[in-house]
Amino acid sequence: MSEKMFQMMFNERQARTLMRALDLYSRIGIGQFEELIHLFRWQFDPRLKDKLDQIEMSEQRLNEIKTLLFDLHPNSSFGIFNKDVPDEFRVAWDLQKVIRHQIWKESENPTRFTVDSYPPDQSVADQPLAQIKRAENATDCSNNS
After folding, report:
1. Closest to 73 in 3D by CA, of 81, 83, 62, 84
2. Residues 4, 7, 12, 17: is their CA dihedral positive or negative?
3. Residues 64-103, buried b or exposed e (16+ Cβ, 10 A)?
């Protein structure tokens, strides 16, 4: 019996959002909990503009959790290929790389001096890389359920 396959259609903003979400998920999976703080700090979330002290306290607590759960120190993490990292986080990493590379290919002036230019590779042996291509028009992918 063959594996079920799915197809989605999304615009560039949705693709970038999905890419960032997959990146965050894979980073959390390797113990980079500080990425949660970076998400809000570097996105300049207006809800947190006057809460620098709370951000700092949250970062300290996340570092404590990281040490408690994984015996990792601040700014350290497992590598994505570490044998103890569950495959689901590598699958997310692969999906993120596929989307990132396609966005790079579709950019108006792609530069070769970026990780986005490298074709994605497969990090989970029993999972083929996802396929992505540019839709010629919005009707290329019907919305049939």
Report:
1. 62
2. negative
3. eebeeeeebeeeebbebeeeebeeebbbbbbbbbbbbbbb
Alpha carbons 22 and 28: distance in angstroms, whole number: 10
This prediction has a pTM of 0.85
Q: pLDDT tens digits, residue range 43-75?
A: 667 787 788 888 889 999 999 999 999 999 999
Nearest to 102 by CA among 143, 141, 130, 139: 130
Q: What are phi and psi of 127, to 5 degrees?
A: -125, 115
How many other CB atoms are there within 10 angstroms of residue 21's CB atom?
13
Residue 141, helix vs strand vs coil: coil
